[in-house]
Amino acid sequence: MNEFSNAATAPARDDQSPATPENIGGNSGSAIEHSSRIEVPPVREDPAGERPVLKEVEPVDAWKKVRKLAMKQLDRFVSLEPKVLRGDNPDAIHDLRVASRRLQQVLDLLYPAPRPGEIRKLRRKIRRCRRTLGEVRNCDVQLARVERALSAKRTARRETWEAVSHYLRQRRAAHFEKSVKKLSKVNLAVFYVHLRSFLVPTSAAPAVPQLEPMEAHPPELFYARIGESLEKVWRALETQIEESHRDARMSVIHGVRIAAKRVRYLIEVVHEFDAPGSREAVQWLRGLQTHLGNWHDAEVLEQVMIEMVARPEFLRDNLSIAVGVEKLILRNRKGKEGFKEKYFAMTRDSEDYLRVGEWVGGITRSPEEAFGIAN
Question: Which residue range is the domain that position 308 belongs to?
Answer without folding.
Answer: 218-375
